[in-house]
Amino acid sequence: MFPKVHAGMEMAMERNGDCTKTMGNWEKRIPIFAQKMKTYPGLFCKTMWKVGHDDPRRVIHAFKVGLSLTLVSLLYLMKPLFEGIGQNAIWAVMTVVVVLEFTAGATLCKGLNRGFGTLLAGSLAFIFEYIATETGPVFRAIFIGAAVFLIGSAATYLRFFPYIKKNYDYGVVIFLLTFNLITVSSYRVDNVLKIAHDRFFTIAIGCGVCLLMSLLIFPNWSGEELHNSTVLKLEGLAKSIEACVNEYFVDTDIEDTKNQSSEDPIYEGYKAVLDSKPKDEALALYASWEPRHSRYCHRFPWQRYVKLGGVLRHFGYTVVALHGCLRTEIPTPQSVRTLFKNPCNRLAREISKVLMELANSIRSHRHCSPEILSDHLHEALQDLNNAIKSQPRLFLGSNKNQATNMLALAAAQASQKHEKAPGVSLSSVKTDSSALMDWKSRRTTDSKEAERKVLRPQLSKIAITSLEFSEALPFAAFASLLVEMVAKLDNVIEEVEELGRAACYKEYHPCDEVVVTYDRRKISVSQNNVQTDGAD
User: Fold this and answer.
1) Distance in angstroms (rounded) separating the CA atoms of residues 250 and 7
2) Which residues, 6+ apart, have CB-to-CB distance to 159 below 8 Å?
3) How far apart, in Å, are the Cα atoms of 387 and each of 82, 289, 295, 379?
4) Cα–Cα distance between 199 and 192 in angstroms, integer?
5) Residue range 108-144, pLDDT digits in tens
């Protein structure tokens, strides 16, 4: 009896202790939670300001959506309109919510898909309903079930076609939804055709309001955004290359370089290029739906922009590798870097100059200068080559046995460290000979494993640093990446020229003088006293 009572008392005391700890934790968490709640309003307001400040078009689009919803809500709020349309007015509200997108091309794509999908489904459902009404109720049910099965299977299979999935997937979904709603409802509802007519009418009103807001009130063209984003990608790569080379030759601690945040100017410059494929493909698709008479969208081959984005991504991979040289585990000494500072800086400036010229040509819709690959770029490349040739001992060692000697020295040091380490303690003492032999074999095995563990982290780094030309190895990689960029410039220039020929760019004139000022929100181009502003 008594042990059970004591056990119960102990359990009760443990529960009381847990409750006390829980209350103590809550008492500590409540002030922290209250402090966080105080900071949320300020953080929310700051985020709202930043989102609108980065791109003012977002604020305009939000007001356009609100105004569109207010207009279609009048179908419910005004009694004459509600009596004419009825409960189906809600479809106009749903259409505005689903169809109205940020750019005009996206709104046109979804609006026309929804309109034609609804019209085609209603027409087909009307034909099936006309055939089914001429038969008895049993055959009518079988006929409707068979029609739903066949149309549903065929429409779903069509969605797997690449061209259909890319351009009309949303329209096929709306067709399938509307057809099933009308066809199945017609079996129990008598005036289903009137309901279909009213629903199509309200959807047409919603689509009309969306197109009106997208095309006539502060339109955002997908083609213009694709065009500007391509320009910004070229400028971002140019700035990243120049900033990366400048930082490479600055005498900074390697730990400071590693601890830098990933959100640095170099990373931000090429990040937009690496992440651009889905955005470019979507913008090119939506731009193909936009009116061709637009000032920004006339005769533009949008798929050429997508192809140019792919070439820029391959070029950007080299910039990523160049950025990785700033965080190498075996840094090149500053004395070695200084020998090649001027040739590398000059070559980086020339590469950036070519990229900026390509960006300016796309922005102003003109062909590149015939001298875009000027003699200055080749001279900078030749200077770097001569500088490397002038220091042959940095890249070609003379002592072939130095690496072997250093490895032997590392092994000797590791053995000395192991001898100084304390021995293995025995868990139990045995006096018989078998126990002694087991202990000796375990000690031999443990000593080999310990020596191997000591050698393993040292040998790789010592083996690399023991090479006579190891100080120049990281710089050799850095210089080879710069040379690789010069080789890849030809692909970028060729693709930009192909884009210019397909888009009918104007010819280059030496008198064209382009001055570019760029910040996070605006691009201002002044050419022959003509200024154009575009949003990022």
Assistant:
1) 71
2) 165, 169, 172, 173
3) 82, 54, 50, 12
4) 10
5) 999 999 889 988 988 888 888 888 777 777 888 888 8
Q: HEC profile for 147-215?
A: HHHHHHHHHHHHCCCHHHHHHCHHHHHHHHHHHHHHHHHCCCCCCHHHHHHHHHHHHHHHHHHHHHHHH
Distance of alpha carbon 213 from alpha carbon 448, whole angstroms: 78
DSSP 296: T
Indicate left, alpha or beta for 264 from its phi (over 0: left) and psi (-120 to 50: alpha).
beta
Convert the pLDDT of each residue in 480-520 to its tens digit: 899 999 989 989 999 998 888 888 888 877 665 544 443 43
Contacts of 408 (CB under 8 A, 6+ apart): none
Q: Is 133 helix (H, G, I), strand (E, B) or coil?
A: coil
In contact, 33 and 61? CB cutoff 8 Å: no
* DSSP codes joined into one string, 520-534: SSEEEEEETTEEEEE
In this structure, what is the dihedral angle of CA atoms 513, 505, 301, 235, given to the nearest 10 degrees?
A: -20
pLDDT tens sequence across 294-336: 454 455 688 899 999 999 999 999 999 988 888 877 777 787 7
Beta bridge partners of 514: 527
Alpha carbons 72 and 57: distance in angstroms, whole number: 23
Rounded to 10 degrees, what is the CA torsion of 415, 418, 420, 424? -150
DSSP annotation string for 480-533: HHHHHHHHHHHHHHHHHHHHHHHTTPBPP-TT--EEEEE-SSEEEEEETTEEEE
**What is the rounded CA–CA span in Å between residue 225 and residue 243?**
26
Tokens of 112: 């026309």
